[in-house]
Amino acid sequence: MQTHTPIIWINGPFGIGKMTTAQALQERLNGSFIFDPEEMGAALKKLTPKFSGESQSHPMWIPLMLDALQYAIKEADGPLIVPVTIADLSRHRRLMSGLQARGMNVQHFTLLASKDAVQAGLRRRNENYTMWDADELEQRLSDFQGEQFKTHINIGDHSPHAIADIIAEHAGLTLRPAPSDPLRWLRTTFGGRR
Fold first, then answer.
1. Which of 37, 61, 69, 78 has its CA 20 to 30 A from that of 53?
2. pLDDT on residue 22
3. pLDDT tens digit string along 156-179?
4. DSSP summary character for residue 10
5. The whole model's pTM is what?
6. How does pLDDT run across 19-70, given as a tens digit for each residue?
7. Looking at per-residue confidence, does 119 or 159 come out higher?
8. Are 58 and 44 in contact, with CB atoms under 8 Å apart?
9. CA 20 vs CA 52, 112, 159, 185: distances in Å
10. Rounded to an integer, what distance in angstroms lies between the CA atom of residue 24 and that of residue 32?
């Protein structure tokens, strides 16, 4: 039996603005909650002796994600918003099929932009974690264009609130009006994208 409360899954390359978009959605979507998989990945690294790889490659990452999302959706007062980069096709397929098997209503969106725009976003973040080199970035952007990663949203010059509007329209959600503060978008954008 499928749960009525949706999971709004926001995928896409590092630095494209997934968390910024998630925050714009949460701000305007009653009862919504941002479920941040990076927190689980960080915990796995701290709690697992001798594990030093990428958190998503940990053998417990997908089972824990499925259990945590199933629990969170039961406790939530509104949609769960999940901003996370999952470019690995097999991992993405396993996670999405696992959510579907548990009856969870997942609305999947992938934010896309040009290679130059994504690289600019990564430079703005200036964080010390594994990033793709130029060749891998090109391959990942090509992978993200695939059917498995639909619905695609090309962010172009859209503000985070404009992207939130697009997601809400596709997912059949009603948002409160966007804040009228014109500087909010600049502060959010240059405050760091994920």
1. 69
2. 97
3. 889 999 999 999 999 999 999 988
4. E
5. 0.85
6. 999 999 999 999 999 999 989 888 888 888 888 888 898 999 999 999 999 9
7. 159
8. yes
9. 28, 14, 10, 10
10. 11
At residue 49, what are phi and psi to the nearest 5 degrees? -60, 140
Q: Which of 114, 115, 107, 124 is nearest to 191 (CA)?
A: 124
User: How many CA atoms lie within 13 Å of 3's alpha carbon, on the beta-carbon side?
Assistant: 24
Secondary structure of residue 13 in the 3-state scheme? coil
41 is written with which tokens? 């990945």
Half-sphere exposure of 29 (CA within 13 A, CB side): 29
Q: How far apart are CA 36 and CA 81, in angstroms?
A: 8
* Cα 76 to Cα 99: distance, rounded to the nearest angstrom: 16
The pair of three-digit structure tokens given for residue 162, joined into one six-digit string: 């404009």
Which of 146, 60, 139, 80 lies closest to 110 in space, CA to CA? 146
Which amino acid type is present at position 187? R
Residue with tokens 């941002």: 34
What the block records as the tokens of 185 is 């978008």
Residue type, 94: R
Q: Is the peptide bond before 85 cis (omega within 30 degrees of 0)?
A: no
